[in-house]
Amino acid sequence: MEEFKQDDGPGESETRGTFSDGPVAEIDESELREGIVEALKTVYDPEIPVNIFDLGLIYDIRIRDRVVEVDMTLTAPGCPVAHTFPGMVERTVAMVPGVAGAIVDLVWDPPWTPDLISEAARLELGLI
User: pTM of the prediction?
Assistant: First the structure.
């Protein structure tokens, strides 16, 4: 895996991500999405014992030419892992067979609320 970051200068957009430096297997997009979700379910929030997918931190997964872009949030803007956690998620997604590259965008809108936690995670946490 190769991490990539390109800054084209002031006023230009920054390109970044984690991309495969080897051959990438062909895979059906629905299978690829399933593998990505399963991989995201292996990443746990450092403060709440629930994976980031069931915690509702993943807002969107877009796949184009086997490059995956994930919009995610954190439970709070002041989260102590805000600078490192998206990179960890990016590397996890990039390791999924069939993924050519991964880009994780940290977003704050809409803000995360406990209402986004899945029913299974609510049961696990004793919230229902």
Answer: 0.79
For residue 63, the Cα-to-chain-centroid distance in whole angstroms is 12
Name the amino acid, one letter, at 106. Answer: L
Residue 6 lies in a domain: no
The confidence band for 71, taking pLDDT boundaries of 50, 70 and 90, is very high
* Whether pLDDT at 20 is above 80: no
Comparing CA positions, the residue from 55, 61, 53 lying closest to residue 30 is 61
100: domain CATH number? 3.30.300.130
Residue 9 lies in a domain: no
Distance CA 62, CA 26 (A): 17
